[in-house]
Amino acid sequence: MHNSKGVFVLMAISLLAFLGTASAGQFGAPEPAATSGYFSVGGGYFYNSDNLELSSNSQDYNFTQNQAYLQLGVAYKQIEFYIRGGAADIEFENAFPNGNFNDDFKAFGTMGVKGFFDVTKYFGIGLFAQGSLFSTYESQSTGLVGGVSTTIKMEIKSLSEVDVGLMIQGKIENICLYAGPFLYWTHADLETTTTRLGLSSSSSTNLDQTNNLGVVAGIRIPIYGKINLEIEGQYRQEFSAGGAITYSF
């Protein structure tokens, strides 16, 4: 194993940076995509699905996202730092009395760090930490409530997630297979404005996670030269999956 002390220190610093600032996205194989001292670029798509609990009524609501992004990664020995920028939409099922909460693609950002330790030529252990922060989403619905026309407007603010996990990786002829458990913390603020009979009222509450343990599995396949394809699946309370293509310099 190489530079294990340095990996743990850097990951601890990164995790502290994520907490309080950091929804989910692809993690990727724990082994850096680029060789030490070089960088990688890529792009990907991730379908994110999970449940969040509304603190005001303790009910779970399923939400889904389509995330499209570009990524830049920098490798230092067996450590990789990466940032992402992209756009994501969102949908919450049955958020309104007569329908779903929907909003179009808006900007989001992600930063992460991964550390990899060689056990043998074909086997290793990885640690990672990742945080994402999304734009404000809003949606509204108008319908009859108690026989009176009512407009409800919702704003989801500061949707964020922090993920920390461990992976086991196997490698055969540059094909990486990886899997492992991870912990995650998701939070968002929800503001609701209700208008009926010309009068408006507002309320605030939170959306939080009822479960904090997930599992991930994926594969990295070289497809041509320094170009790799990664396919990954995750399970929290719902199943999520995505893919990315990276080029390593």
How would you describe this structure to a colleague?
The two termini are 24 Å apart. The radius of gyration is 20 Å and the shape is elongated. It has one domain (4-133, 160-182, 209-248): Beta Barrel (Porin), CATH 2.40.160. The protein has 249 residues and is mostly beta strands. Strands 1, 2, 3, 4, 5, 6, 7, 8, 9, 10, 11 and 12 form a twelve-stranded antiparallel β-sheet that branches. The protein is 6% helix and 73% strand. The model is unreliable at 15-22 (pLDDT under 50).
Descriptors for this entry?
249 residues, 1 helix, mainly beta, Porin, single chain, 12-stranded antiparallel beta sheet
Structural class: mainly beta
How many structural domains can be distinguished in the coordinates?
1
Q: Specify the oligomeric state.
A: single chain
Supply Rg: 20 Å
Major sheet: 12 strands, antiparallel
Instruction: Summarize model confidence as the mean pLDDT.
Output: 91
In percent, how helical is the residue content?
under 10%
Number of strands: 12
Can you count the helices? 1
Termini gap: 24 Å
Low-confidence stretches: 15-22
Q: In CATH, what is the class?
A: Mainly Beta
Q: Per CATH, which architecture?
A: Beta Barrel
Query: What portion of the residues fall into strands of 2 or more residues?
Result: over 45%
Per CATH, what is the topology? Porin
Task: Annotate the secondary structure layout.
Layout: H1 4-18, E1 39-54, E2 59-76, E3 79-96, E4 99-118, E5 123-134, E6 137-145, E7 148-172, E8 175-196, E9 199-208, E10 213-224, E11 227-235, E12 239-248
Antiparallel strand pairs: 1-2, 1-9, 1-12, 2-3, 3-4, 4-5, 5-7, 6-7, 7-8, 8-9, 8-10, 10-11, 11-12
